[in-house]
Design goal:
293 residues; Aldehyde Oxidoreductase, domain 3; TIM Barrel; 2 domains; 5-stranded antiparallel β-sheet; 42% helix; elongated
Length: 293
């Protein structure tokens, strides 16, 4: 599996820094008035439901940004399956520092693990077919790099990271250009001519006839927007390997296997990142380890 080395220290540091700034830039008044800075101990990070882990390294970075003297041991690698009751990390040192970092570290762990777990469920549903599960740009502002990383940890693949990552001609592009008299074939031709070397041209279509026009015009990928499985099968037969076919819109765990069975190459699912349920993870201080020094 991929790991956090695919992201730079600067990228991770900027995201973690922003998260810490919004939570503790003015201090932790509760911990300051109640917990002695001399109190030391250990805490365990505990998973409370089955899933797939992502974000262990980010959580570790949070603790060390708050207090470099903390000892953080991540026991389970990202991309690994975890079970309810499993300890995935331990943190030892200043209890005050652990408490200051707790919420931000868990926020990253819970959200990224929720994305990885959701992705893994979609991947499992499509086993036996050739389609891959992909994310979209429907990500939390500022967290795209980490959320797309979490998709990879769940066994999925990344679509465009940003608008310079490929040409995707969507409905509003077509509306704008058709107003000036261009047909779909003209739009694809213009895109192919102006595309930087190495970038694919993808066209979003809503009807079988549009798919035929797009592939004849030389599109590299045909994106089927909210088509029925029967329509998808017709497009697959029609295209016959001349372009890759992506299914998108209205894809859920209940219908993703039926979509995969149509023969499409890609299934993009916005729900992987725009509405995942966080994995239930908590941090628990171990009373027997507490001592004042």
């Amino acid at each position: 599996m991929d790991n956090l080395k695919s992201l730079s220290d600067e990228q991770i540091g900027a995201i973690v820094g922003l998260a810490l700034a919004e939570d503790i830039s003015l201090g932790d008044v509760t911990t300051r008035v109640l917990v002695s800075p001399r109190l030391r101990g250990q805490a365990s990070v505990l998973v409370k439901e089955n899933g797939v882990l992502a974000g262990g390294g980010v959580a570790r970075r949070v603790f060390l940004e708050v207090d470099p003297s903390l000892k953080v041991e991540v026991l389970v690698g990202d991309g690994a399956g975890v079970q309810s009751g499993q300890i995935i990390a331990t943190v030892s040192g200043s209890v005050a520092s652990i408490l200051k970092a707790e919420r931000v570290a868990l926020n990253f762990l819970q959200r990224l693990s929720g994305i990885a777990s959701q992705t893994a469920r979609y991947v499992a549903e499509t086993q036996g077919f050739g389609a891959v599960i992909m994310d979209t740009r429907k990500t939390t502002p500022g967290l795209r790099l980490l959320e797309k990383y979490a998709v990879r940890m769940g066994g999925g693949y990344n679509h465009r990271f940003h608008l310079a990552d490929g040409i995707l001609i969507k409905d509003n592009h077509l509306v704008a250009l058709r107003a000036s008299g261009m047909c779909l074939r003209d739009v694809v031709a213009r895109a192919k001519k102006g595309a930087p070397e190495g970038l694919v041209v993808e066209v979003e279509v809503t009807a079988v006839e549009e798919a035929a026009e797009a592939v004849e015009a030389g599109a590299d990928v045909i994106k089927l927007d909210n088509m029925s499985p029967d329509e998808m099968r017709r497009v697959v037969d029609l295209v016959s390997g001349q372009a890759r076919i992506e299914a998108s819109g209205g894809i859920t765990l209940d219908n993703v296997r039926e979509v995969a069975a149509t023969g499409v190459d890609i299934i993009s699912v916005g729900a992987l990142t725009h509405s995942p349920r966080a994995l239930d993870i908590s941090l628990e201080l171990e009373p027997g380890t507490l001592e004042a020094v």
